[in-house]
Amino acid sequence: MAIEALAPAKINLTLHVTGQREDGYHLLDSLVVFAEAGDRILVEPADDLRLTVTGPKAAGIPADGDNLVLRAARMLGQAGQGAAITLEKHLPMASGIGGGSSDAAATLRALARLWAVTLPPAIETARLGADVPVCLDPRPRRMAGLGEILSDVPQLPPLWLVLVNPGVPLATPAVFRALTQKTNPAMPDPLPNWSSAMDLADFLRSQRNDLEPPALAIQPVIGTVLAALAACDGCLLARMSGSGATCFGLFASAASAASAACALAAGQPGWWVSDSAVLA
Ligand code: C5P
Questions:
Q1: What are the start and end residues of each CATH 3.30.70.890 domain in the chain?
Q2: By CB atoms within 10 Å of each CB, which of 14, 72, 102, 260 scores lowest?
Q3: pLDDT at res. 13
Q4: Ranges in the chain annotated CATH 3.30.230.10
């Protein structure tokens, strides 16, 4: 019996850094959504634990014990418990859309079914990566603390995203280090109700990704990506996700997102471009 789990891209529509703990970790307040685009995890019974990485973005992904997928499997299973795991990689690596965390979360979901065990608490899964808890149940959420405090958000209007990654590496710790102002205002609590995609975009414009300025300072091409997205017909908002370098454009229709994606991919063949609906 093979079990499949999708590992959708995680998008931070906002990412406020509200403080820093004594151990150096940052406190966050983020509105998170998931795109239909993502990686795929397949687990099958096996005598030992093994990982195969396939797919268009497999190059450079380690299939050894350091991979978050295997670390997640070891966290969940008893010593010696086996599974053959296939990770089909479609998302660019280390790019601010939760690839590794989403893969780890999908692995936990699939293996919990294969092994008939319960999932560990959020605080424990957050040790794999700050985005793992929110990725365990991929739907729009507000994420706070280090990523382990999750709450529901008002119903989102139908939304489409165009994701663009310019193919430059950006290490999350370096972006946090380059952030000079560590204490910034949180989002309003409670969040308002949004009547349309336009209304949501107006709200988002009044909020921020605090990691965007430091990421831009390290990789100025992010500015080019944001300008290219913002110039597309129907783009309601262009912003960076997570610690970058992937940026997203927000659209009110599938057709406008698809034509923006087409135009961007044609204009910049070296960029990774993907359009998809936001998961409700
Ligand atoms: O948890 P994750 O692996 O995504 O974090 C990568 C790095 O980002 C951490 O080692 C830390 O330097 C930084 N980070 C942080 N505060 C957070 C999440 C991540 O400082 N809440």
A1: 154-277
A2: 14
A3: 98
A4: 3-135
Please give the number of the atom of ligand 1 that sits closest to the Cα of 146. 21
Among residues 268, 256, 243, 270, the alpha carbon closest in space to that of 11 is found at: 243
Name the pTM for this structure. Answer: 0.97
Which protein residues touch ligand 1 with a CB less than 6 Å away?
25-26, 28, 129-131, 146-147, 172-173, 176
Query: For residue 132, which of 101, 103, 109, 107 has the smallest C-alpha distance?
Result: 101
* Largest interatomic CA distance in the chain: 54
Give pLDDT tens digits for 107-163: 999 999 999 999 999 889 999 999 999 999 999 999 999 999 999 999 999 999 999
Residue burial 185-204, b: 16+ Cβ < 10 Å; e: rest: ebbeeebeebeebeebbebb
pLDDT surpassing 90 at residue 169: no
Quick one: CATH architecture of 3-135?
A: 2-Layer Sandwich (3.30)
Per the annotation, the verdict on 131 as an active-site residue is yes
